[in-house]
Amino acid sequence: MRAIIEENHGGPEVLRVSEIPAPVPHSREVLIRVRAAGINRADALQRRGFYPPPPESSSIYGLEVAGEIEAVGEGASVENCGRPVMALLPGGGYADYVTAPVDLLLPKPENLSFEEAAALPEVAATVYSNLVLTCGMSMDPAENLREDGQSATVLIHGGTGGIGVHAIQVTLAAGTRVFATVGTEEKAEYVRSLGAEPIVYREQSFRDIVLSETGGRGADYILDVVGGRYFEDNLHTLADGGHLCIIGLQGGRKAEVDLAYALAHRLSVHATNLRSRSEAQKAEILRGVREQILPLVESGRIGVGLDRVFPLEAAAEAHEYFDSAQHRGKVVLRVD
């Protein structure tokens, strides 16, 4: 089969198609004929040598796919063969075939193409696990009303990335007021079209804007892909009892914190990643995605935000586009 294997680290040019044997499904696993694979920042970091695959995971790139079940291992129902699915993976997605545990599968919504479906598992699991399971945001709009009758407020950094686009739609569906940082006015228009209130960080202070627009109260939840550079401003942007969830370090890995301020305002700081979690933890996350997020996707209330599709053979070109930060939403490889 064809696959993009981790052989050398560097720029997008290191991504090349290799021919290797197809994997064989083990107990409670299925073999998926991959039709499309999503590209994520973890892939770009792995390519540069900063994010190695977890132990005993595939050295093939790719953390999410959509395709059809072609074979099953012991303990997996043979009746599932031919079923279209999405899968969350620790690696292995940039290939013609990949194996996945049955507990890490999601049914492919009928209203999505394979390319659209491949853009969903990683962002849906990331957003749901952090905002809902970790920070405690409810998907019920009635439960996101504060004591003063106003909706809870969310700030999302990186509003036009794959995670940002999905997070905006999820939090709006949950009935919250949503701010999102972007780099340009063009991206601000895109975020505005989704229903969020954009903040162009090159021209405006997100801290000043959010505090001003909320009457000094601040944001109840912040989803942050920047890390160190934003840490202090993030803390001072939070409302009393607010939650900051750090899921990326694009702005550095170190920061100083005034613990007295955090204590006085009862702030919670979380730092998480998805790839290194156990299979059981990922399965729990996907159960929540299946129950609370997929119905919104199937009804059309949450779109996928697919930006551009490249063939597998153009993985290097796809990563070059991804690295340019021009994309608005997800970039996907068409594999079939």
TrEMBL record:
Domain Enoyl reductase (ER): start-end pairs: 10-333
Q: Keywords, A to Z?
A: NADP, Oxidoreductase
Superkingdom of this entry's organism?
Answer: Bacteria
**What residue ranges are annotated as transmembrane?**
none
> What start and end residues bound the annotated signal peptide?
none
NADP as a keyword? yes
Q: Which InterPro entries match?
A: ADH-like_C, ADH-like_N, ER, GroES-like_sf, NAD(P)-bd_dom_sf, Quinone_OxRdtase_PIG3
The name this protein goes by in its record: NAD(P)H-quinone oxidoreductase
Source organism of this protein record:
Rothia mucilaginosa
